[in-house]
Amino acid sequence: MAPEISRRSWLKWSGAVAGATPLLTACAPKQPTREPLPIATDGMAGVDKTVWSACVVNCGSRCPLRLQVKDGAVVRVLPDNTGDDSLLNRQIRACVRGRNMRQRIYNPDRIKTPLKRREGTPRGGGQWDEISWDEALDLFAEKLKHTIDTYGNEAVFKVYGSGVWNAHLGTSGGWMKLFNLLGGSLGYYGNYSYSQIGTITRFHYGNPDEQISNSFEDSIENGRMLVLWGNNPQETRMSGGGLVFTSLEAAKTDGLRIVVIDPRYSESASLLADEWIAPRPGTDAALVAGIVHHLLANDLHDQAFLDRYCVGFDEDHMPPGIPAGNSYRSYIEGSGPDKVEKTPDWAAAITGVPADVIRRFALDLGRTKPVNISQGWGPQRHANGENQARAIYTLANVLGQVGIPGGGTGGREGYYWPLTSWFDDGKNPVKTQISNFGWTDAIERGPEMTALRDGVRGADRLKVGIKFMLEYGGNMLASQHADNNRTREILTDETKCEFICVVDNQFTGSAALADLVLPDTTTAERWDLAPSEYTGDMAYLIMCEKAIDPLFDSRPAYEMVTGLAKRFGLEKEFTEGRDLEGWARHIHETKNVPAVPGMPSFDELKKVGVHRYHSPDGLTVALKEFREDPEANKLDTPSGKIEIFSSELWEMSKTWEFPDAERGDKITALPEHVATWEGAEEALEADAKYPIQLIGHHFKQRTHSTYGNNANLQEAHPQVLWLSQMDAQRRGIADGDQVEIFNDRGRVQIEARVTPRIMPGVASLPQGAWMRMDAAGVDHGGSVNVLSRLHPTPVAKGNCQHTNLVEIKKA
Amino acid sequence: MALGFFFDQTRCNGCKACQIACKDKHDLPVGVMWRRVAEYSGGGWVDHGATFTPRVFTYYTSMACNHCENPVCVQVCPTTAMTKRDDGTVFVDDSKCVGCRYCEWACPYGAPQFDAATGHMTKCDLCADYREGGQDPACVSACPARALGWGEIEKLRAEHPGAGAAIEPLPDPSVTRPNLVILPHRDAQASGSGTGDVLNRGEL
Prior knowledge:
The complex is a heterodimer. Chain A is of the alpha/beta class. Chain A folds into three domains: 115-185 and 424-519 and 548-578, Rossmann fold; 196-416 and 623-654, Dimethylsulfoxide Reductase, domain 2; 680-810, Beta Barrel (Barwin-like endoglucanases). Chain A is 29% helix and 15% strand. Mean pLDDT of chain A is 95; it is low at 1-36. By secondary structure, chain B is α+β, with helices and mostly antiparallel strands. Chain B has one domain (3-193): Alpha-Beta Plaits. A three-stranded mixed sheet of chain B has the order 8-1-9.
């Protein structure tokens, strides 16, 4: 009897061309002879060795990999085989990217030998000469010395890069130690991950970094509600030893309601959420205001908490000397300077979230305690990101959830920070810093940059622009900064930045913009130690043993810098007599072993691979001490309390300068919703030239741009534009069509994924794609930063790469 | 006895670590995917003018070979290369395969994959070599979310009552009788209901 195969399903799965159903001939299955299989109890049989290594990229986790080596080559990648499926001893199963490590090690894009831009050809022209290491290091040393002698140390800059992240040795590479030994270099504060929240938190919670919330583990144990606000652990924290696991456990926890807030129906929404709320990008502070309005109307705010622990919520709790009407409550109730009541209906018009949803959600929040509001870093990566972040903090304050089990601060999910024994770079004698995002400005107009206009720290202004720039393990120059076309113009003007060196193990778009390219190894080709990062209440340390010799003529950065130090007569000061393995051993035995109970010795760790450990204080309840005794445990704010109204920001709003102010370029003492350039309001204007808000979510294919050139990962997760059905229909775009996404800054052509999973009026082009520019200036790789803008945010002077307006048409 | 896979749809975020672990283990070239992951999504948005209400669902299905009770690939293979072992797993006897691709055409799950380099069919055999040495299949031990399992199918079915394989976008399991146990996502749609679409068809 011929089985009837479902034609429709089969077509879906195989993508084959329709044809006649094949006639099935009944043939009895029989056992053929076959070769006996080799017996292997650990991965592949017959390998020379299996060593512990790690995937060291900036994903927020860090996973062990066991590399199987045969005849000097890595032949297979195995997962962690320690730990289990319990909450605090979980197996640290690497994600899709780390599991593809072999394609990173053996990628055709590996840089094989030092490359020098061919004499007489323009920067970015693609003409190279292969040179020896001696020539390369001579050139680097000569340019560095010339820069310091001619312009001073402030003209030297190591730009942000996170392709080698949070490993004891690899992350430093030794570059800053050398620069510091030579008098230092221009510094930067902040980072591309959380520039705005990392700067603005000091004013709210007194914390000079982000303020973490309670951990997911604590919510599992003690919570009744978890709000993932612009927070997508299933895609931004993909390690099976981290938040993919703990957030799933939270979803499986009876009595813990999960709400996801995101304009995209993210994997976190589809897997974890009991409810999903979709606001327009950049409108979170408005959503918070509408929620707080309804909380107040129903007397569901925690007045006692606000009175004792906070400043600025109502008129009775304001810092001295502030005119009436400047409290947050006045702002909400319409008795503030703008005289607008922030009702749920007001919020609905801005956010796109129906007012009844806002009201119901407010009641849920007010009546379900404890609740952990845990914000991701998407909301803050906007032109009004500082206020967005503070508003979400404020909601947790209004609900009185700070410092109690099951509650939270409104910050990102908490973690027990591991002991991170970085290679000691020493102190930077240059105290001047720019924001992480400010380097293109510093190249272009360095001496014009001041503290009050551009957020220069440690000095009133820059003395000189950046003349010598090093990019190590990063892709900022080509595609991870903003406005890639303009950035390229700035970088290819050789009268501005005079020398650019890129150090990487893959020939990235950034390498293409260098004068000198130096081939680094991958982690598999050197010694290191990799600690966990944002992995909740389970911290760990991973041994990275050198699995294979460096490929081609590549070298670990440390060895490059050793060669440079030699040229400056500083070899002894730099190496202190140690090679990489010596440093790994030294750091481990002198720092890790004494500090972490039960930490195995270096040689023991080579065998066991991973050591897990936990906070002696139990699960993370952020600001617990402050909650218990706010007088004895003051926050580092002027009042010692949580500053919903920040007296410092109030002062800065009067002194900071915005000479070419655009919509939203202002500092507010309260976490108000601020309409900005290319924000939701502008998108909604009737005659909007660019009516689509474009964001760039983190994507499974790669970590930022790392792994973005791996064929297996491109096959598994091809780059597509997420476009709503409504917006596609209006433009005659069908799923799978090539579309052009454009604005005044650039053009991208890519395949459209027409999906119900994104809000109408919003599109998402996953960030981190490698650019492929054609002769006409159209990028076919799908880099969202072709379309993003260099204009920084008001306080952090940070990157706001989710604030972009575009139009989209069928290509 | 029959061996099969267990898949927990409530835990899968479509990351494809399973697919990559499989490719790494078997050195599969681009274009050959013994394990694939389908995204099934449906629904839309209610437009109220200034605001919207979403009514959207999404779930993933990770799929290798289901080592069917009634494997059509075995039935259609003209050379008897497609073979069912005593343990119920199906593999390709490379010495007999002529690469006619009939099995690929017949399988409703797209499990047999043509390797252009060898001109032969290739497919998941539930990591027979690993199982022989007491190891789990590569995809199972890879899953960061712990969404995959394997074992004796009767045992899996007993452990997961209410689980099955009659879930979109998979075909009705009554034809090939796959040895597959899926714990359904809360929004799982019944096979053939057509309430959503496979949104990542090009990736399969």
